[in-house]
Prior knowledge:
The chain is an all-alpha fold. It has helices at 2-14, 26-43, 46-49, 53-69, 74-78, 82-86, 92-125, 136-163, 167-188, 194-206, 209-234, 237-242, and strands spanning 18-19, 22-23.
Amino acid sequence: xxxxxxxxRKELKELSVVDGGLITSLSFMAFVxxxxxxxxxxxxxxxxxxxxxxxxxxxxxxxxxxxxxxxSFAGERExxxxxxxxxxxxPDWAILIGKIGAAVVWVWMATMICLPVGLxxxxxxxPDQTPLLYTPxxxxxxxxxxxxxxxxxxxxxxxxxxxxxxVRQAQQALTLCVMVLLxxxxxxxxxxxxxxxxxxxxxxxxxxxxxxxxAMSATFLGLDAFLVLAALARFQRTRLLLS
Length: 243
């Protein structure tokens, strides 16, 4: 675990997210302002009361984390620092888990800040309504689905970054992967019976946000396990050094 923490700390410093425990990245703060203030103001109280915004809290970490993990190994190759990293005594699994963990921490931190900021923004903008709050189960569901979505994107991003030689190639491949993940559920509805489609659409429009979040989390958990194991199997120090 000490080795994992070493890699995790290195990656977070390179991301300019953590410096002495303080968030210093201006881009990070701009992102929080956009997702935590601007978007809730545009959507209104539906942001808290409806079920479909749960999908956003899954999509946002998945999309954001790929921009971080594209640089994980491909960036090391471009900066000619991969050989130095692989020459350390750090075990293979510690390097891989540390890089995945840093991306997940960064993205999940952004999500957890955006969540309460959005609630404060809505309650200030709509003072005449009852306090706009998530139910405890819905809040927990959003936190879990955001974490697992970030882990999905991070493990997928690291797996892609291991196989390509440049950050640009990794970003292009990951953008395609994310688009496939986003469009596949919608396209699959065309091949389902009408009764199933009505039930699924009704669930996302009028269902319990917590139930939807935990159902999505179960799907993400299975995908996460598969991708993390695939990345562990793909990560071979000698092969990376020769490439």
